[in-house]
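Note to self: keep these together.
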Amino acid sequence: MNIAMIGSGYVGLVSGSCLADFGHNVTCVDKDVARVDALKRGEVPIFEPGLEDLIASNVRQKRLHFTTDIKAAVANAHAVFIAVGTPSRRGDGHADLSYVYAAAEDIAKALTGYCVIVTKSTVPVGTGDEVEAIVAKARPDLEFAVVSNPEFLREGAAISDFKRPDRIVVGAESERAREVMGEIYRPLFLNQSPILFTGRRTSELTKYAANAFLATKITFINEMADLCEKVGANVQDVARGIGLDNRIGSKFLHAGPGYGGSCFPKDTLALVRTAQEAGAPVQIVETVERVNVARKKQMAERVIAACGGSVAGKRIGLLGLAFKPNTDDMRDAPSLDIVAALTAAGAKVAAFDPEATEQARPLMPGVEFAEDAYECAASADALVIVTEWDAFRALDLDLIHQALKSPVIVDLRNIYRPEDMRRRGFTYQSIGRP
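Structure:
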């Protein structure tokens, strides 16, 4: 099938490359000329394991193309995916849908026959209705369908998630549109793809509900970690004890500095605003959003306390800047709040991240960026583990001890065992463990 992917950001590149790998003919469209030129040269603007090779392979086999010409890409497409950004709107927290609606107008002008327009971007309930109205107004002469098909990609594991999904949610209002979507995803499984067909509004809400629930699990275990610290319990054992219950499950029960990234912060806030306007406030999600914002700011207080109550004039090393491992995404990363608070308290911050340094550099003026973990620890009064990259899980602790000015480690991801670290002579603090 001929597929056009409007938007060559994270979702567009991963989705377009995977669809091309299924054998479809995919054209990714972006208005950013420099980005498109870079992609044509084989330069991928984001870090995602396996993505560069996947793009190169499908470009080489002439199934994946990049262009700024939306008219040419859409003209003969059986389906057009909208995969543009929907950032939080300044001032009220609603999703900014201006890019989605602009894409809908451009698509309408380029249509030449029946086409399924698919909203892949995360959008509030009712967005598909508006997209349909925009296209119908511009092209009353053409038959088309608007479908919701939210993405459920985890950064760092996106290709695997796309190719081996738990489920594919498709919100469609016509049988013809469902048939097209079924054919697009048919290569995924020999027998039948795990497709859940719903109404369009139900599909749109499903995406927000999923992210809000996962954000709630993270926030819940973080609060349990705080309670564990007060009563002398171990949050990792608590997480295992409840996670073994199949009704709860073990995923997203790892205590840490709070969630960040491109999805959870903006999606929980957008769901809160949508629910408030609908007259059905989601008070649990409201609390989750508020608690998570506060938690990221509180992490710096833990570091200051570990340094004796003041970091003024002290050198603090940070390991990990991206919001999670295997990505260079700095959006709403806990490290941003930690660095800001430490700097405001008078600390000199050094940092190292295996992939996110270039993305972090303009966001963290005054921070010294190290070449590796050991340079980051050199002469530091404390070392803080912020992101649980594999490279930090088996550090040479003797070298780290020698490099540090003071053997203080604040482990915000519970990578190491407290008893081992103290036996090695570290003043060691973690999350929710005695």
